[in-house]
Design a protein that fits this description.
Length: about 240
C-alpha cells in the first residue's frame, strides 16, 4: 500500500518495459509513480494533478516531449527530468532552454536516475521556500509599510484600516513600485472574479485607499493614475507625472 506521504511522480514514456523498471525501482524508495504513455495524456495529467516532479521522455506519440514541456511551462513550474534515447547535444540544449530542470540519456543507471531526481526535487523545494519567504515579506515604500503576514498596513507607523480587497490592491501595487499595473491585472490578482473590460470598480477601491493613506490624487505621494491604463505605486523621491 502506497504511503500517503510518498513523493508523487509523473512518468511519461511510451516504453512500457522501461516504465515498469522505473516504477519497480522507485516505489520501494517511497515514490508514488503515475504513468502516461503519450504526450497528450501526460500533459493533461501534469496540469490536472499535484506531483513533486515529472520524468518526461522526448520521443512520444501524439505530442513529443519538447512540445509537452513547452505547453506545461506556460502554466506550471513542475520540476521536469527529461529522458532521451538521442545522444545529440543539441537536443539536450533545446530541452534545457525550454524549461527542463535536468536531462538524462536513456542509458542511465537507476542509481543515477534516483540521484538526479532527488536533486531536481530538492532544488525545486528550496526555490519554492524562497519564493514563499518573498511573498510573506513586508514591503516598505517610503513611509508606507505593507505586511502580508499580519495583513496590516501603516503610514509612518500609524495603522491604516483597509478592507481585504483594498489591502490586496495596495500590496500588489507596493510590490511593483515604479511599474504600472493595469486595471485588468489588478482585478485578476485581487478580486478573483470575472470582470468586464471596462469595469470601473477598481477605481472605487483605489479612491478609498487614497483617502485612507491621506494621498492627494492631484499630487500623489503613493498611488498615481496612469490615464487609460491603470495605476502605479510611486517610488520614494519620484515625482508624479
Amino acid at each position: 500500500m502506497t504511503n500517503t506521504l510518498s513523493t508523487k511522480l509523473l512518468l511519461v514514456d511510451d516504453d512500457l518495459k522501461l516504465c515498469r523498471l522505473i516504477c519497480s525501482y522507485l516505489e520501494p524508495m517511497g515514490y508514488s509513480v503515475s504513468t502516461a504513455h503519450n504526450g497528450t495524456e501526460g500533459l493533461a495529467m501534469a496540469l490536472a494533478g499535484e506531483y513533486d516532479a515529472m520524468i518526461l521522455d522526448v520521443m512520444l506519440p501524439q505530442l513529443d516531449g519538447f512540445e509537452v514541456l513547452k505547453r506545461l511551462r506556460a502554466h506550471s513550474n513542475l520540476p521536469v527530468l527529461m529522458l532521451t534515447g538521442l545522444g545529440d547535444e543539441a537536443d539536450r540544449i533545446v530541452g534545457l532552454e525550454i524549461g527542463a530542470d535536468d536531462y538524462l540519456p536513456k542509458t542511465f543507471s537507476t542509481r543515477e536516475l534516483l540521484a538526479r531526481l532527488r536533486a531536481v526535487i530538492r532544488r525545486s523545494r528550496i526555490t519554492m521556500a524562497f519564493k514563499k519567504e518573498e511573498r510573506d515579506a513586508a514591503v516598505t515604500v517610503g513611509e508606507l509599510r505593507v505586511d502580508p503576514e499580519t495583513h496590516e498596513a501603516s503610514v509612518n507607523g500609524n495603522a491604516v484600516g483597509l478592507t481585504a480587497v483594498e489591502f490586496d490592491l495596495l500590496l500588489s501595487l507596493a510590490r511593483a513600485a515604479g511599474r504600472v499595473k493595469t486595471r485588468e491585472r489588478l482585478l485578476l490578482e485581487v478580486a478573483e472574479r470575472d470582470f468586464e473590460a471596462f469595469d470601473r470598480s477598481i477605481d472605487v477601491h483605489i479612491s478609498s485607499i487614497r483617502k485612507k493613506l491621506g494621498d492627494d490624487p492631484k499630487a500623489p505621494r503613493y498611488v498615481q493614475t496612469i490615464r487609460g491604463v491603470g495605476y502605479m505605486m510611486l517610488k520614494p523621491g519620484t515625482a508624479a507625472e
